[in-house]
Amino acid sequence: MKAGLQEINETTGVWGSMLCNNQGEIIENLSPPALNKPSLENISRHVVELLSGTAENLAGLKEVVFHFRDRKVLALDLKQAVLIVICTPSVDIPLLRMSVNVVLARWEDDAAVQKQLKAQFVERL
Amino acid sequence: MVEVLRGNLAQLSLLDILRMLSSGSRTGRLDVRQGVKTGEVYLQRGSIVHAATGAQMGEKGVFTLMGWLEGEFSFTPEVEAPERSIETPTEQLLLEASRQAAQWEDIKDVISSIDAVFNINPSGSTNTISLKPIEWQVLAQIDGEKSVAEIAGVLNLHEFEVARIVYSLATAGLLYEVTGVKRTFKEIVEENFFEQLTENFTEVMGPIGPVIIEDEIKMMGEARDAFPQSKAAELVERVSLEIADGAKRAEFQKKMVQVLKGS
């Protein structure tokens, strides 16, 4: 799972990435030390709230891109968990989205990753 | 009087600030400062009712301030507007501002700021270019000395309008920036990119592949021989959405991400 996050982080403009469960608790994190745990949890809770809110209004929406302070954030609802990528504002979103898709496609076929995600699953708040 | 909001435009755009104040039904004065230039926008229960910067007032003032990509702002609540210069509904005003902000993102790639100075490129463009009267008026003011903002002042045009015209003239190869900016012309993708895109896409889609690529380029308003590097990933993503099979799409994206990342 960490290798996948590392691959995402290698995209130009990406600062860090993490996976959190449906309640915003961090499962796996590969972000620079400048982003401490409370900051990351602040972002992850914000994202989960956002996805929960939009889920009611826009059924089927699984991706959100928004500005958080001076960063751009891409969040993807994986159903079992939420992937959050923190970037500089100038990040090339189509390139990032495809880089993420490549990793997600690999995770889908990776029994170990699926097992890990299943173990971390909690219902959304 | 308590100042409740203060910050930097580089971190929070004027559009975002106004959206926030409007949705919060706030009344007060938003002061904006960029170097020696200042401007102010007044809100009354969330509606933008008055704006002024230099000689520009009303909507023109709002749109000029929207072009300030750097500077400081502060909001002072409960200050009444000295007059009403804006009648347009705020929602409509912000919608137009949002459209302009999106264009500013592209313009910023070529024009470092509205204080940037341009000159006429002696080698010109290799293509035939037709100009509208307003574009000719702007081109006639380009002298390597006047800034974009100064030209707007001379022609009594909105700064955004002049910046948009300078942007189109510069990307057509007619102008170059004299000061500040690192690159005036769009970086164009190498032909190798299209060869690999066509090869990988045709492998999945068959002979229709190159046709889809050409259609997408047209729909993006670009030409293959001058396709900007900044839109290469967007093109790849757009064509990849034509691949119905998820696994095949991921495989195509994987190959093209490697191309885009240069590995």
Task: Walk me through this protein's architecture.
- The complex is a heterodimer of chains A (125) and B (263).
- Helix content of chain A is 43%, strand content 25%.
- With 125 residues, chain A is of the alpha+beta class.
- A 5-stranded antiparallel beta sheet of chain A has the order 2-1-5-4-3, sandwiched between helices.
- In chain A, helix 1 runs antiparallel to helix 3.
- The radius of gyration of chain A is 13 Å and the shape is globular.
- The two termini of chain A are 24 Å apart.
- The model of chain A has no long low-confidence stretch (mean pLDDT 84).
- A 6-stranded antiparallel beta sheet of chain B has the order 1-6-2-3-4-5.
- In chain B, 30% of the residues are buried.
- Chains A and B meet through helix 3 of A and helix 9 and helix 10 of B.
Give the strand order, joined by hyphens, for the main sheet of chain A.
2-1-5-4-3
Low-pLDDT runs of chain A: none
Spatial gap, N to C terminus of chain B: 58 Å
Structural class by secondary-structure content of chain A: alpha+beta
Q: How much β-strand is present in the residues of chain A?
A: 15-25%
Features:
A: about 120 residues; alpha+beta; five-stranded antiparallel beta sheet; about 45% helix; B: about 260 residues; about 15% strand
Gist?
With about 120 residues, chain A is α+β, with helices and mostly antiparallel strands. Helices cover about 45% and strands about 25% of the residues of chain A. Chain A has a 5-stranded antiparallel sheet with strand order 2-1-5-4-3, sandwiched between helices.
How does the SSE layout of this entry go?
The complex is a heterodimer of chains A (125) and B (263).
Chain A: H1 2-9, E1 14-20, E2 26-30, H2 37-57, E3 63-68, E4 71-77, E5 82-87, H3 93-108, H4 111-119
Antiparallel strand pairs in A: 1-2, 1-5, 3-4, 4-5
Helix pairs in contact in A: 1-3
Chain B: E1 5-8, H1 14-23, E2 28-34, E3 37-44, E4 47-53, E5 56-57, H2 58-66, E6 72-77, H3 90-108, E7 118-120, H4 133-141, H5 148-155, H6 159-171, E8 175-177, H7 191-205, H8 209-219, H9 232-240, H10 246-260
Antiparallel strand pairs in B: 1-6, 2-3, 2-6, 3-4, 4-5, 7-8
Helix pairs in contact in B: 1-3, 2-3, 3-6, 5-6, 7-10, 9-10
